[in-house]
Here is the input.
Amino acid sequence: MNRISRHPMRRVLAAGVVLVVLVVLFVVRLVDIQVVRASALNEQADEVRSTDPIPVYGTRGEIVDRNGIVLADSVMRYDVALSPKNAKKGPLMREEPDPADPEKTVRVEVPLEQTAAELGAIVGLTGDQVLGIIASELADDPDSDFAYVAKLVDVDTYEKIRALDIPWVVQYPHPSRSYPNGAVGGNLLGWVGDEGTAQAGLELGQDACLASEDGEVTYIPSLQDWVEIPGTEVVHKQAKDGGKLQLTIDSDLQWEVQRIAEAQRLAVGAEWATVTVMEAKTGKLLAVADVPTVDPNDPAATDSADRGSRTFTAPFEPGSTFKAVTAASLEDAGKANPLSQVIAPYSYDAPNGANFRDSFYHEDTPYTLTGALIDSSNTATAKFGELLTDQQRFEYMQKFGFGRVSEVGFPAEASGDLNGGPDEWDNQTKYTTMFGQGLTATAVQIASAYQTIANGGVRMPVQLVEGCTDADGETTSPDVTGTRVISEQAARETSEMLENVYTQGWLKDDWRIPGYRVAAKTGTAQVPDGNGGYRTEYLVSVSGFAPADDPEFVVSVSIMNAVKMNSSAASAPVFQQVMSQVLKKYRTIPSGAPAPDLPALW
Amino acid sequence: MSALPVQGALAPAPIRRRAWIPEILRPAPDRAARPKPRLAYAVIAVSGVVVIALAQLMLSIAVTQGAYEIDGYELSQAKLSRQQQTLSEDLDRVQSPQYLAQNAEALGMVPNTNPVFLRLSDGAVLGQPAAAGGGAAASASLVPNVLISGVPLVTEQTAGETATVGGQGAGLGGAVVEPAAPAAPPPAGGSLPTPTTH
Here is the structure.
């Protein structure tokens, strides 16, 4: 003690040196464990203690209609798999009620054949088929431990298989998609493939809104009974739910429109038909029917060409419905009014050398612009159309929305083809574009053009999606600013002319909706054969809106190659039924005053 | 010690120095006179450790017990959510327009496409009334829905039966429980029952 007290610094130094050495040792060890060998050690620890990463499924967003009715929903399905190796090991033991004493149970031996038959009965196979799966897997690989019995079975089947309690059968969750309304809107919705990838329609086009992300967790279970030890869960990746997509479609109306369209398609033996219903004041699509329609629950049942939405993807030469666009352009440019006059021949030799005829024979006729529309005279329309330059008409077409994809941006949506513009039009095309041949448009573009006329000359962006609400409740909606295409007066006068087409045209008895003022125009267009000529088939169409005194709804009908009735008389009943249904459904008050009468001839 | 007076002579304040000396020069305590550590302290310290260890043990047991409880609840939650999914799928498909239309047709209803309204404020009839035309067109095949194939229509159900979908909902411990079946539907086919007032 004396010695130490004589050299107090030595003692402190010795202790200090020991301390420093110890600390350095610890730090080195710490860095070694925590940094240098960290990943290896973690892996080693995880192997021993932790579970494999367990997927946490994010829910793909649902698609609902304007009223919140679910059109596409995420559901959990299950894949049933078995272990052939273990199945072959021997019969099962199972507790069953004792026939002698119902209170007690006895252990009975269940042979593989019986288990296979029970399992097969639930998933819709015979016992032999299940045994066949086991046998063929074992033939390939005697140690085979995995074979699917059934994929995507529903919850009910899952519960039944669970109840069988077969140790060599495993069921894996498999998120899937269900479309409770079947083919209602199936053309628009598209579907999702078995592996969870969007395949078509809005599922594909709006995947950014709908898609979810799966997460991953691990935890440390108790070795004895596999129960999670509290506080050991590690979230490696947070699962993320998809957003909810709301459409402007009304599912009830959509069903009714599809029903009407399909009934007429079958009645007239047509290849396909499309019907578009649009709100005149907002450009929102209320129903878009494409028949035949795919049932997204079972897309394979429908011919692959019929699985999409032709309204958006199949451009056609619109024919006479396009004359309304020409007339509206003339009105807006101040070159004509409903009573402007021409003398139209049956066959017209245009100054530039083009030649074309009307679809019906007539002597030289003194048509007003209204009359040109009522009788759908190509020559009269052309004589009026000459009053505008080709460039002017081209610009109007573009302003009406032709030649570019609509704001909907549907997957594989077509832009239609204006054949380049006036510089590239040949002499014949310069005239035929006045009455809707020599250019192509989609059904939705035609509907949008009529919406522009119905809405006082203001074209609203075509809207199919009301908005997307993401998992955090934040809603994004598409832009809805209208653009003026023609003056209000031009729109009103065009509307009045179309009303006279409705009241005086040759279909006036076929499409009458008592009590309402309706404006409409038919079209019977030849279909290009792709080699510069035309096929013998026609695409018949009707587009119009009602009530004409205060337009609310635009309906556009196209029927392709109606073999039993190859004229627009095939599409008129569809227009009449759909428009009646729309007016009735939305409680539209019937018009008071009758339509103004405009003379067709002078 | 001999250096002290020198330091004291140098120091300017002798009074302070005198007060300082007794503090530094204290007699070393006698070793034997040190008080013995009392047993009580040891008891308190050891029992504290024991109590802490016990508490930790109890907590750990409680947490573990909770783990099993949570596991049990999670299992039943999974089962219930499966049941909920089955039921909501059933509900969604019997809500579908196809199913409603088929039922309406089975009950002999026909659509009247003619829009007419009765204005309640003055009793005015808006539009031109017309009788519903045609028979009930079978719409089932026009707008397909594979989900409702095999679901019995309201006319095909006997009293007390509910619309279970292709065996859906069975085996869930009688989860699909609805109040009594709707009143017997009017006979399908033939003429519609019409009111006698006009």
Observations:
- Chain A touches chain B through 52 residues (CB under 8 Å).
- The mean pLDDT of chain A is 89.
- Residues 8-36 of chain A form the longest helix (29 residues).
- Residues 2-36 of chain A form one domain.
